[in-house]
Amino acid sequence: MFGSPRSPPARRKPLVLLIHGMVASTDVWVMRGPGKDLSYLLVDAGYDVWMLNVRGNRYSRRHLSLSPNRPEFWHFSWHENGVYDMTATIDYMLAITGVPKVTVIGHSMGCTIAAVLLSVLPEYNRKVDLVVALAPVITWTAQYRGPLTLGLRFAKRAFDSIRRLGVEEILPLRESTSQLFSGVCRSPSIREMCKWIIFLLAGSADPEQLDSAIVPSLLEHYPAGTSLNTIEHYWQNIANESFREFDYGYGKNYVRYGSDIPPEYPLHKITVPVLIYYGVNDPLAQPPDIRALEERLPNVVATKAVPWPFFNHFDFVLSKDAKTLLYDDMMVIVKKYKSLGNRSLGSTMKLFLVLLAALIGSAIADDGEVVWTEEMVQDLFTRSSDNVVATIPELITSNGYLAETHHVVTEDGYILEMHRVNAPSRVPITRRKPVAFLMHGLLSSSADWLIMGHGKSLGYLLADAGYDVWLGNARGNTHSKNHTTIKNLNGRRFWRFDWHEIGVHDLPAMIDYVLDTTHEKQVVYMGHSQGTTAFYVMAAERPEYNDKIKVMFSLAPVAYMSNLFSPMLRIAATFTNTLETFFNIFGMYEFMPSSDLLSAAGSTFCNDDALTQFLCTNVLFVMCGFNRAQLNTTLLPTIFQYSPAGASSRQLVHYGQEIQSGYFRWWDHGITSNLINYGSFRPPNYDLSKITAPVHLIYSDNDWMAAVKDVEQLHAELGNSVELYRVLDGKWNHLDFVWGINAKELVYDPILTRLAADYAE
């Protein structure tokens, strides 16, 4: 189907392939007619729609050499549907149309078939731009799922008995029988009973979703037939709670697979974006099964429950309300995806990076400075320090300090790593020391507090001053990329967080662990950039933690962001909604732009100075800028070894929302989802007046991320802001707070003086 009155035929329309469920056919996509069925809606929207009939159904019962009357014809399951039927169909579609990729929409077994193809033949991920899974039947948990599980323990004997009777085809469409049932059900008095029979087969609780007018037509075209192996293959996987290839028995398995157990389908190889829809009342694809599937797939764009409590397995293709409950939402997402997908990931990222590089080029280039050549930069890295490849504990001990590594588990299962620093042996160690807890910024790690070395980094200076120093690492960075139950650390489920979760989960877990370990009652908290944002979230949303903070020092505080200068975040704010969709569609859940693309943008748009071009290859400098007078170039190899350390793309998008809105508030889901999540059209603001711990705000005039006006607004709204300290350097920038040559004199010494004067025990 490639043309309609609303969308006349044309060449190279975007391709969509529809794949039906078990014992069905392409009839399910056209039975209700224009304006109702998904196939017609897609054609009207401008798509070239193809519908696959898998082998063995009423339309695909031919073979070059085998007759459907022979048992060998039926020796297939949905495995063969995937590796043979679907490959042949996609290759044919692409060859005929000249279009490079196809969107696959499957229902029930159609999703199973797609999963088989893309996991067994992963090269086909390059030919598919999106998979929409409607009621996917792929993974199973220990849940009841309706008629398919009846007699599960006796299933193998039943299948063997059926085969001995010479039966290989199941539920074939017999014209006489279908016409009989269809004729009977045309009677209005019988039609309602027919509806109940149809829906009881799928365990439905809402037969009213089926349009009574199509019942006769449905019985005339359904069931369309399948092989005994197809049903047995499902039975095998349900019994084993697995997703494996067909089990032929021990001997045949050894011959075919080299093992007595069939291999699992490698779902992690499905790299194409997947959009999942499920019904909470579906006995064949239950919510626990959907969650298990989402965890195993690496690139799930979104998982959505159809907003009707009784929506069932058949409803995805036969419900009279499917358009409003399902298809309209799905087509909006598919359209957004197609509009982005017309451009490759590489070209889109290049466009994004070129735009930001063009903005930063003049901003980070100072006239009159010493011009670096490529040879000078190369020589700098050739003479890099020994610490470039050191782990954090090695970095600490190489400076003569005592190092420990600790792990803590958050309430939602993230495993965080902390590093502990204590004074070297030349400084007397007391049993009870005041505790200092330091939290890094966006795309950074605990290394930020150590890179400058002994006598310069804040971590070491605090240890020398007699503090028991603990360095936190937020979820998702290099040291805290782990979870108790989520095994796919590249998937959407692991990365579905922003700095809100760091504030309400990570910081409380780490602070409680530190206090329990040290037997202290309070910590001195010091945060940089996002480390301050997360603190404000924690202290506002979990105000009981104010009592656990002796004092908080905010270095480059970030809350309100209306006046920030950072070109990269300005761009992110302008395209916040599109950027979130882009990240989700391309599976960019972790924000880590390609160094090659950044390098290309830097060489094009940053000034001719080789050092400036080189710094443009690091997203932290692109985002925050740099002050060349405060940049210790000999430490650049070490800095580049540890930064950027990784973050969720949602952290960047959340900051973009803050810039765009002018508020310091929770994640904005959009009007509809905000109503569901918050009970209001807009996200709630963080109540800064609840922050009663004493806060010292340390800021500068040239900070790209924390503008003076924004810091002043924060100061006015905090519940207990005791100091507003401006760094005495007009060019002091965001990263200078941790890497600046004079950070000790301009920032750290004033902090230590204030600690000794006002907060000493």
Describe the structure.
The protein is elongated, with a radius of gyration of 31 Å. It has an 8-stranded mixed beta sheet, with helices on both faces. It has a 6-stranded parallel beta sheet with strand order 2-1-3-4-7-8, sandwiched between helices. It has a two-stranded antiparallel ribbon with strand order 5-6. It is 40% helix and 11% strand. It has 2 domains: 327 residues, Alpha/Beta hydrolase fold, catalytic domain (Rossmann fold), CATH 3.40.50.1820; 410 residues, Alpha/Beta hydrolase fold, catalytic domain (Rossmann fold, 3-Layer(aba) Sandwich). The longest helix is centred in the first third of the chain and has 20 residues. It is an alpha/beta fold and 761 residues long. Helix 17 packs across helix 18, helix 19 packs across helix 25 and helix 20 packs antiparallel against helix 25. It contains 29 helices and 16 strands.
A few lines on this structure:
It contains 29 helices and 16 strands. With 761 residues, it is an alpha/beta fold. It has two domains: 327 residues, Alpha/Beta hydrolase fold, catalytic domain (Rossmann fold, 3-Layer(aba) Sandwich); 410 residues, Rossmann fold (3-Layer(aba) Sandwich), CATH 3.40.50.
